[in-house]
Fold this protein.
Amino acid sequence: MPINNQAGERDKTRVPRHIAIILDGNGRWAKKRGLPRTAGHAVGAETFRKIATYCRDIGVDYLTVYAFSTENWKRPEGEVSTIMKLLRKYLQEAIDTMERDHIRMKVLGELEGLSPELREMVSRTDEISQRYAGFQANICLNYGGRDEILHAARRYAKDYAAGKADDSLTEEGFGSYLYSAGIPDPDLLIRPGGEQRISNFLLWQCAYAEFYFTDVLWPDFGPKELDRAIEVFNSRDRRYGGVK
Ligand code: FPP
């Protein structure tokens, strides 16, 4: 069953509000074609653009992707610098077009570890995003799930010591210290590339997410694969620990 009706309107009951994706398989995609790994990242960045547009068009409210982890700095220097270059290019294009398209964008992660140029771009996208409502793309950059939880715990401890927080901390209250503050938890987590693990991604937020794994490599991931993931998501019985 299509997730858009003929008038092109989305069916809110069938489209997840928040989709998270671990971008995986760029290197293997390139290797299969005798290309350098960095060529896979360039196509992967293009795939992100296509999937983000598709998500917006079918009525997803939030798309969060894992673009660069706190562990990815261990990769060869040339590969890291290509990924950073692609991110700068993408953020610059986003800054130039998000006002026109009324798209919101947020970078989640340890921003202090990023270059001053990237940090400046992140502030700019934050500032533009504040003016709009509607679809939001989140890019996890220098991000680690455990690092995020630690970072939140330290911020809470600081507030507590300063008398700005008391000892009645709730899950919701703790969530407001995370990089993802204000963003609803993902409903569907997709991992292309054949691996079936969470790799330190959104550990707190994915407590009740449905997981979908596929062997398709990220650069080959298209709207058809996303539709398939949503179809599988719709066949799941979400009980949140309760019974039906
Ligand atoms: C994982 O594939 C991919 C990455 C670590 C980098 C993803 C980054 C981009 C696509 C660049 C820019 C992103 C955006 C959102 C504009 P891998 O290298 O681990 O692949 P492999 O498992 O096949 O080696």
